[in-house]
Amino acid sequence: KVYWEHLHAAGITADRMAAYDRKICSEPKFSKDQYVGLTRDLTEYLRTLKAVHSGADLDSASEAVLGYHQDACKGKEINVPPITEVATPRMRELLAAARQFRDLKEPLASLEAMMEARRELWNWSKPHGAENSRLKDILYLDLALESAARSVVEASLSSMGTRAPADVLKITGLMLENLCMSSGSNNELLICLREWRSVVANAQRGGAGDGWALQAKAIVDRVQNGLGDTSQRFIDTLQPTAGTMGDKLCVDGHVKGLFSEEIVRGTAAAPLSQMLRALDPVLRALAQMGSWQIISPVEASGVVEVVDNLKDIQTKRFEQPTVLVAKRVGGEEDIPMGVVAVITPDMPDILSHVSVRARNEGVLFATVFDAQALADMAALAGQAVKLKPSPAADNLEITVLAGGVSALAGSGNGGNGGGGGVTGSIGGDGMRGGVGEGHGGVSTSAANGAESGAGAGVESGVGAGAGAGAGAPGARTLRVVPAEGNQPVDLLIRTSGETRLSDFILWGTSQHAVLCFLEVGQLILVSSSSASSFSSSSSSS
Fold this sequence. Notes:
Layout: H1 2-9, H2 14-18, H3 35-53, H4 58-66, E1 68-73, E2 76-80, H5 89-103, H6 107-125, H7 135-156, H8 165-180, H9 187-204, H10 211-248, H11 253-265, H12 269-286, E3 292-296, E4 300-307, E5 317-326, E6 337-344, H13 353-360, E7 364-368, H14 371-378, E8 384-389, E9 396-400, E10 432-435, E11 451-452, E12 458-462, E13 478-480, H15 501-507, E14 515-517, E15 522-526, E16 531-535
Parallel strand pairs: 4-5, 5-6, 6-7, 10-12
Antiparallel strand pairs: 1-2, 3-7, 4-8, 8-9, 11-12, 13-14, 15-16
């Protein structure tokens, strides 16, 4: 009974075994006296199978480097000598710990041992590394450690939500290092690894406030960009060959198209990507970032419509103000005419085409990270709603309009036909900047000028183009501001073509820094005592 239950649990049936080239048809009938001998022989046979067919298996790869002896079987005895330079007491200790903690389901301790072992092997595994007559066995051990690390992470993902944040940060850092040691052209990843280690150290010391969580979130965003580059490099290299061979072998088109993606999922990038996904909600909670990231924070009112992909309907014209809930936004799409808001679970770059268009056209554009919040939003399909971003652009107030579609008349939402600026709002001792521009249409969302508020907070805004097609573009600002208020400008940096917002956010995590992003054209620099402005002929920022 136990025999068949075990086989059936693995999807193996009597009919399947009978269909093998060498059929297995007899029932297992062994005496208790045979147990010890059979167990020993089958265990040795399994080791042989792994050594022959699974070169990346950690156990067999370790034995190939450390050396092992197998007693005679049918007159043949196996003796594999150790690789003296590699099989040091330290390496034996690390490999034993890696396997022991792996079996004990202790991912952090196991991964620490695995990464330390890979560091010990780096002298041979790195590009143009040291020579060795058994270099192949050394490289197989390095590959086995990389693969074992992926297996450990995949097996422990479900427990990440219950682990201490510092432990999750450490595991993520180890997976980032794992990828660095397996990737060429990894300068970007190495920079992120160095910054990540400082975050881990700060978190372990119990860094003040949520500064380390904000910095960690910025590095996560930057690593995700690096993972995208790594994935694209694999696809560019492998997919042309996969397409050619797939055509010759008459492989199904769908399978052929996914070939490179599946290869990427088998690399060291996969467990890191999984860790970042698990870590993101933890960091957002620690940094008090909320479930929303609002890229274009304007108020909007419209009828909710749910679509699968923004790309599929980007040329459509909507006759009434529409709030799109798009399950997929790639970043290169245009916003359809008549759309006043786009809500998506995707997170396009803040400088992507769709993000820039949303800000230019006064369209609310927001990413929601909470699956339940997205489902609640989609459940409002066909109803008229009013959307109001929070002052910190990390939450969205959703109000169902009692009058339905008729309540949208005179709401003053410029939508995609043109929009006014976005006014900032005052919160506590902070400063929130609001700016905007219009390209036709009528909007009541902003007016030219600036206003001051209570406490130490200062609000500034620049709007242009309220009215039909009038006005030159105004400056748009994003500010990271300390609690003690704004300070005079110490450093003005002009960038060209920069696409990684996270680079700048790293600088803005200091409790004593004010970070402002402005489009060149009309820059408004606000200090606690005075305001000055200047123009530039440059068209990029």
